[in-house]
Predict the structure.
Amino acid sequence: MKTRTLAAAALALLLSACSSSAPAPERRAVAKKVDPAAVVADVRATGEHGHELEVQPLRDPQVEDLRLQAQTLEAAGKLKPAGAALDQALAITPEDPDLLQWKAELALLRRAWQEAETLANQSFERGPKLGGLCRRNWATIAHAREHRGASDAAAVARRQVASCTVAPPVRM
């Protein structure tokens, strides 16, 4: 009889330990793996979604050579030299919003979130505020904010992407 009472008490003690009212330990948020190449691919794809007519100014041949050089270097994964080529191009045409956006995308590839947002903002301010470049600007800003942990601000930037697309005129 004493053994049964002891077993029941041990069982009760064991069950009470399992049903402790202490709060469960907090689980740490697992940081999402960031693939910067996928982020930049998304930004560039966002710029291609529209159907509007985009007018591009004639480019200085020297700037065009530097753009091609930067494109080749970026494709080879040489981000610093690609950025240096874009810096040289920006020295020739400092207000070029497309070059600023490209630098912002290189900053995304380097995980330099604040720099990417700053450059995309500069590009937006100097750019047409419509069309593909505008969508790329806001997509870059959204990604940069998201990866810095500013989810609400990122959501605001994502909503701005839609304002960059202008519906074509109705033709009858």
